[in-house]
Design a protein that fits this description.
- This protein has helices at about 15-25, 40-45, 55-65, 70-85, 85-100, 105-115, 120-135, 140-150, 155-165, 175-185, 190-200, 205-220, 225-235, 240-255, 255-270, 275-285.
- By secondary structure, it is mostly helical.
- The longest helix has 14 residues, at about 85-100.
């Protein structure tokens, strides 16, 4: 099942510098991206690459050259590097931001995600812990740490972090989506559907919560609502192999084996290693 990660966040600062920096960076819009895989490319697959373009990086570098002692400039450029998959460059910028401002909790949280992408989960956890220590109300750090816990099988710890973010009145859809995944894994599909629905209300253009909600509808034998959600997920992201495979499963349950085979085939083309699609295609091929 897919999990959502918001890649990186710029700092928040009420100054004239902030306006100039954000204008140069073009990074005000926060992208939603990701899947449960620890593959960094997958986690950032839907991010607007314009935010990490060479031109944008050059603009950010010019801002840093003019403000070499300002930690926020490094944090924003680090965010842009991270969105572009340049994780080591991103880490260097977050290192510098934290060196300049050891209380910069957003930079710790951003660096934590980069540490995860670099395969250092212990360092990622340490950075999330430090961000929370510096700001106990920072919802993004709880969500990031919760996803790290969930991906490493620490389900109860993950649930507690998502719950904490929601108690803080977060408007971040990841908290609800990822808590919904935990409910779903525990067979609590009514609660999962409620969380996926909240995530959809906060981010209606994201395919993953529709797909997640469809799975829970399917588990409750509500094939019509499941089918509607899978179709919406595919419409929003036609490259979501899981969405095509789930749509195929509904076709198969309806006895429409030819349509099921076509959808399974689409899933296999997108991800030849996705076993539910491979197995489904084998069952329905030649129908």
């Amino acid at each position: 099942m897919i999990a959502i990660d918001r890649p990186l966040e710029p700092g928040v600062r009420g100054s004239a510098f902030r306006g100039a920096l954000f204008a140069a960076a073009s990074v005000l819009a926060l992208a939603l991206a990701g899947c449960q895989s620890s593959n960094p490319v997958s986690d950032l697959a839907t991010v607007d690459l314009a935010q990490s373009s060479d031109e944008n990086i050059s603009s950010l570098t010019a801002v840093i050259n003019q403000n070499p002692s300002d930690p926020e400039a490094y944090n924003v450029r680090g965010s842009a590097y991270g969105r572009g998959g340049k994780y080591r460059e991103a880490k260097r910028d977050f290192d510098r931001a934290i060196e300049l401002n050891p209380s910069f909790y957003q930079a710790y949280s951003n660096r934590a995600l980069i540490q995860r992408f670099l395969g250092d989960n212990a360092a990622a956890l340490s950075d999330y812990n430090r961000a929370i220590q510096l700001n106990a109300n920072y919802d993004a750090a709880y969500i990031g740490r919760g996803n790290l816990y969930r991906l490493n099988g620490r389900t109860q710890d993950a649930f507690a972090d998502f719950q904490k973010a929601i108690q803080l009145d977060t408007t971040d859809p990841r908290a609800y989506h990822n808590r919904g995944l935990i409910y779903q894994s525990q067979g609590q599909h009514a609660f999962a559907i409620e969380d996926f629905s909240t995530s959809i209300s906060l981010s209606p253009d994201s395919a993953e919560p529709y797909n997640g909600r469809g799975v829970s509808y399917l588990a409750m034998n509500d094939d019509d609502n499941a089918f509607s959600d899978f179709n919406t997920a595919i419409k929003l992201n036609g490259n979501l192999a899981e969405g095509w495979a789930n749509q195929a499963l509904v076709y198969e349950r309806r006895g429409e084996r030819d349509k099921a085979a076509k959808s399974y085939a689409a899933a296999v083309r997108l991800d030849p290693n996705y076993k539910p699609a491979v197995d489904g295609l084998a069952r329905t091929r030649g129908a």
